[in-house]
Amino acid sequence: MTNRKLALVIGVGPGTGAAIARRFATGGYDVAMLARSGERLTALARETPNAHAYVCDVTDEAQLDATLATVRATLGEPAILVHNAVGGARGNFLDIDPQILNRNFQVNTMALLYLARRLAPAMIAAGSGAIIVTGNTSAHRGRPNFAGFAPTKAAQRILAEAIAREIGPKGVHVAYVTIDAVIDLAWTRERWPDAPDDFFIKPAAIAEEVWHVAHQDRCAWSFNVELRPFRETW
Q: CA dist 89 to 100, 146, 152, 219, Å?
């Protein structure tokens, strides 16, 4: 146990999740990082002070409960939850395997419900805390070939709003951060090899805004937050 506050970051991959973990660690938090890939998490924990790796599939309630018990025993109660895990797949409604939609719903929406139910009570008791959910434009509109993804992100956003309206008056800030952009990653650079640098959004810039939203003055809380490069059409 330390005197530092604890941020729980779900879905720590090589881009946004890792950047968020680093931002909270440099901001003075202990950071519990959850993901299904243990090798990547362990490497990130080694290079990030006060960051701790926990391999967990957050769609599995038994795994989640065991992991949260370990986190609480070693680091304390989370003051911040960032739900960055994402399940996604392209496909139209006629061709896509319905189980893909179900799996994405489990990652994007049900995992948020599981986490909020387990973490919000302590935040409410403390009268403070934040739950930040990262999303994208699929949470706001359905497009061809997104039938297995967009419905789950829309449900995620509405669930986050329902939670915000419930626990905001009790002192817990809930926000939904829509990332309307192509995130700057190795595979996106390969997919858009001729795109200029300002076509992409940097993970560190996303992390900085997540940090800002998590620390807004309670007299000026945001719920819907949208991020996009200045050249992005919207």
A: 7, 7, 11, 39
